[in-house]
Amino acid sequence: MQLDRERLLRAYKNMKIIRMFEERLHEEIKTGEIAGFTHLYAGQEAVAVGVCELLDDEDKIVSTHRGHGHCLAKGCDVIGMMKEIYGRADGLCKGKGGSMHIADIEKGMLGANGIVGAGAPIAVGAAMSAKLDGRGKVSIAFSGDGACNQGTTFEAMNMAVVTKVPAIFVFENNKYSENTGVDYAVGTASDIAGRAEGFGMKVWRANGSDFFDVYNTMLDLLDYVRAGHGPAAIEFDTERFFGHFEGDPQKYRGDGELARIRDQRDPLKQFRLKAVELDKIDLSDLDKIDEDVAALIEAAVTQARAADAPSPEDVLTDVYVSY
Amino acid sequence: MQLDRERLLRAYKNMKIIRMFEERLHEEIKTGEIAGFTHLYAGQEAVAVGVCELLDDEDKIVSTHRGHGHCLAKGCDVIGMMKEIYGRADGLCKGKGGSMHIADIEKGMLGANGIVGAGAPIAVGAAMSAKLDGRGKVSIAFSGDGACNQGTTFEAMNMAVVTKVPAIFVFENNKYSENTGVDYAVGTASDIAGRAEGFGMKVWRANGSDFFDVYNTMLDLLDYVRAGHGPAAIEFDTERFFGHFEGDPQKYRGDGELARIRDQRDPLKQFRLKAVELDKIDLSDLDKIDEDVAALIEAAVTQARAADAPSPEDVLTDVYVSY
Amino acid sequence: MTEMMLREAIAQTLHDEMLRDSNVVVLGEDIVGGMGTEGGPESTGGIWGTSGGLFDKFGPNRVIDTPISESAIVGAAAGLALSGKRPVAEIMFADFVGVCLDQLWNQLAKFRYMFGGKTTCPAVIRMSYGAGLNAAAQHSQSVYSLLTALPGLKVVMPTTPADAKGLLTTAIRGSDPVIFMEHKALYAVRGEVPEGEYMIPFGQARQVRAGRDVTIVACGLMVSVAEAAAAGLEAEGIGCNVIDLRTTSPIDEDAILDSLEITGRLVVVDESPPRCSLATDIAGLASQHAFSSLKAPIQLVTAPHTPVPFARELEREYLPSADKVQAAVRAVMAYK
Amino acid sequence: MTEMMLREAIAQTLHDEMLRDSNVVVLGEDIVGGMGTEGGPESTGGIWGTSGGLFDKFGPNRVIDTPISESAIVGAAAGLALSGKRPVAEIMFADFVGVCLDQLWNQLAKFRYMFGGKTTCPAVIRMSYGAGLNAAAQHSQSVYSLLTALPGLKVVMPTTPADAKGLLTTAIRGSDPVIFMEHKALYAVRGEVPEGEYMIPFGQARQVRAGRDVTIVACGLMVSVAEAAAAGLEAEGIGCNVIDLRTTSPIDEDAILDSLEITGRLVVVDESPPRCSLATDIAGLASQHAFSSLKAPIQLVTAPHTPVPFARELEREYLPSADKVQAAVRAVMAYK
Ligand SMILES: Cc1ncc(C[n+]2csc(CCOP(=O)(O)OP(=O)(O)O)c2C)c(N)n1
Ligand SMILES: Cc1ncc(C[n+]2csc(CCOP(=O)(O)OP(=O)(O)O)c2C)c(N)n1
Ligand SMILES: [Mg+2]
Ligand SMILES: [Mg+2]
Prior knowledge:
- The complex is a heterotetramer, with two copies of chain A and two copies of chain C.
- By secondary structure, chain A is α/β, with parallel strands linked by helices.
- Chain A has one domain (5-316): Rossmann fold (3-Layer(aba) Sandwich).
- Chain A has twelve helices and seven strands.
- Chain A has helices at residues 5-30, 45-52, 68-73, 78-85, 119-133, 151-163, 182-185, 192-198, 211-226, 257-264, 267-277, 283-306, and strands at 60-62, 139-144, 167-173, 176-177, 180-181, 202-207, 232-237.
- In chain A, α9 (211-226) links the parallel β6 (202-207) and β7.
- In chain A, α1 runs antiparallel to α11.
- Chain A is globular.
- Chain A starts with a helix and ends in a 17-residue tail after the last helix.
- Chain C is 36% helix and 19% strand.
- Chain C has two domains: 2-193, 3-Layer(aba) Sandwich (Rossmann fold), CATH 3.40.50.970; 206-334, Rossmann fold.
- Chain C is of the alpha/beta class.
- Chains in contact: A-B, A-C, A-D, B-C, B-D, C-D.
- At the C-D interface, α4, α6 and α10 of C face α4, α6 and α10 of D.
- The complex binds thiamine diphosphate (TPP) (2 copies) and magnesium ion (MG) (2 copies).
- One thiamine diphosphate sits between chains B (64-66, 114-117, 144-147, 174, 176-178, 244) and D (29, 68, 70, 92, 96, 99).
């Protein structure tokens, strides 16, 4: 899984898709056309893409309320997602799920989740399945620095160790759970990985703003897990660029904090800087991608706006396969 | 809180009460007179007594399904408890609770509990109360090596660290949760304290078969917690002398295992050996206590047998204070 | 009387009760807001705007911001209550009852009974509930039917700012555990609130509108749906007696049965899915105790037996509406 | 046909289905028994005697003994199901639904709907339930009313060994999440069980006894209570049509309504407390859809609105009994 040119371009493209998807939503939500609660992932792109670049459709992930980035990185259809967020009949979940419940089982994406901490146990189940199949596949639970305090997350870590399944706990420490700082809510003073280690797992840490660090560290971690050594955990230091949800005035931020992180900890900016150093890629390649992505997002919004709303009777379908 | 003669004699007496209470129940249950599920605490006496000797009625404890020892050590009335276990109208809980739900709030005993892992959060609440009152009182959650895997226990530990309350997590590692060995179920290979440490707490470890070790270690731990340093945890290596519940054939035990632990890890035997070495106590003092306790337990059973059953209408009372 | 929003009535009541009784303690996720951030405590002041200012006034031992650990929050409330305090815990969304049901159901609700009446457990657990904000399947549920079923808990559902004050005061000063359910779509509703001490006893319904043809029983957000339906029906000459239960446990059986003696016709409006719901609960009451009065089949207007859907068009269809209530009323009136 | 106990019928069905389909996986606390002990795996073989021998035959990847972590158990079942497996998870006591409700209610039950029908989630969650063993407030509850209320779940309640086999097979081979509720007091009940493949469709009640005077609807352990009551009433010349629901979700509405057309009188026997219960659910059904047939007030024989008490005398009073059912039947017969 060396980072050849093609892979680098794809990674950049996927990060850019996430960024533009979220920036566009940030604008569109203001129009009132999009309903419900939306949590934007922008700022954390290097984590979703760095992790998912190393997975295939048979590897599973379980995501969170802040799930767009994970979904996109795992291969969910951009237009289907946009339609879902707009609540359209042909959205990825037929308008029944919305932003917090996007899933695509075929792609190994077992769902965003509105319940903080609910994903980790589900990922352990998918890891049990992977172990049973014996094909070296893994299952990943994404959790935040807030979710890492939920009982379910702890239970899942212990159970993964006990059952020695290929579950990977990816902690995205973006320093906030809603309005609360990680230094307050995590008893071990913001060290989430250390706590995972306390559960008997091998842990890694990496800079979640740097795609290369994410990718290379995950390469190492995945080697370990795919080899059958049992579960592992990794903590990424990362940043969220928008509020907790769209509409959040972010009064808990320090002066200039947002400007600083957007300047110094932007995964896309950092990628651009490092990619050209690698001598495989020109900035013009990336500019071209930027244009393509802009067109894609524009098309997604246009199509989502034009798409049909679900019809009221559909409220009754899809509860059971048969009843 | 030095171990003077009086205190030593009282500790021995309390341990003996627990032992004889449980041994007698073991016999009485065979008669079919006692209903429900009963989990005996015998073998772990040094923990309950060593811990509770250092508490007063304003310090709180929250217990487990295996709660008789904690209740007795915290001062619940022996006869009231026996009546409760027999399901009598004037039992400690009027026959409504039974073995798994004995409580005596006046004594700071906030309840045995049939739900594994439910106690730790409740103890954190009591610790919040103690902190608010500012009188140096503490709140203790007893948990087993099985309960330590429940999400609630982990949440409680983190919350206690975050809120810096005087909560103490006492883990009684008796090596078994029902039929499962601790080496299997605890991801950190039977090291429970290490995991608590991972949550950012100061932890202690002691020999739960040795009253003196329990007492002295707790003395140290309590100094720390009462001084306002926040929560702490302690793991006791201990043994249960009977089955998980009365009726358990214990096929999971190794050959000779029970005989070995009853011989080598009996808190009462060990107390006798050490107490006389201390030169403050004669074996005859202890023999006298044995007689007194035998009479007390005999009286408890006699009275419990003779006591009235609750009347059927009582099923409707005590649900609410007013409704 | 002062006009204010329901959320303000709650914040004010919490403040007043904390001032009055130093045993009152509040706890929950982000109820302070800004803990451990550069913005600092109170920089946001609670997700629902129901706890702003309390931390600055009463300090960290009585206003306890917690990690995301709902079981530990409710458990801590239980432990506080058993220790003589009067905790008011906030669960951000009622849907999160899923991660803390044990503490509500097997602990809080049962301590008094299991301990033979020898303790009280005066904890109030507040939670926002209900659909209407397109918050989808895990942030929109009407959990009150499930909680009403649990012996040992009381369940309170204010619909006006005045009721919010009167019922919350009663909840905090009472001796039993109370679930206090706040509909998300009612937080910004305005109304007059009595000044000073104001308590509303539990189990006393509020007659929202008098009428002699049909009894409509509702609670929470559904009261306004029932009211809108009844207002429209008046033009058709149909008089609806609209009852706001205020508390579903205890429930004011007399208010329902007395009204049925007059009307003989019952429509229940319930935001929950239909099975084992508050709607069927009231149907059960009527079919046992008002059988001889009933002139027509009971009509239950509920959500369907589905999760709450996301899209606007679907959620609108999911929720009981004034139209559906009117259709139900017409059906009971037309029955011969 | 072979005679066996209900617990054996379950063990055998698990075995047969695991043999037939390598995607069937079982998991739960102590379902192997002896993990990590000197006695070793299978030294005990499951608390309820429903999983003995499976580990030795199918190995640790398909027979997964777990720590005490009910949320993670149900969550893992959900993850297995979403990954194409057919998990059968055991929750030792239904009361522990308190610590894993979220995974049942907000995850398992809703995936298909939230994901727009694009996945199936074929997980079976088995649990023992019910009173009668003096196991007190936290180990005796009849959780089926609560679970029947939850859209997306099916709820199955076998009362005979044959039904246990037929319904469990249907549950495991189906495509929806199923709660499979086993009454503790029924595990040792004996009966003939058909050999070979045997499936009973959900939503089809079993007529336990025919009668034209009164319809008695029951499920689980209450079926035997209803049966005993009916047998006694026959001597008095009262014919009871006793219906065993078999599944409470879906529920066989036709069986109930058809019977009511004949009898016009309804008694429901429900082990749950009364509020928002299965009893009221059936009353709701009848009062909506059998109104014109009803000749008397509906009688609901349920547990009281209290936790389950411990003492024998109290628990006996708590549970619906044949006496109470007979009194209810006489009351509906006497109504004029
Ligand atoms: C069980 C539960 N509790 C609380 C919430 C409300 N909530 C949603 S997101 C969130 C913060 C999560 O923080 P974190 O895990 O760090 O994720 P981030 O938002 O930073 O991505 C909270 C409290 C919820 N959805 N579910
Ligand atoms: C939530 C919950 N899950 C499972 C059980 C069943 N159960 C009762 S005791 C027990 C084992 C507890 O082991 P441990 O914590 O080590 O305590 P010990 O029995 O050794 O005292 C189990 C699984 C329960 N009562 N509650
Ligand atoms: Mg975060
Ligand atoms: Mg143990």
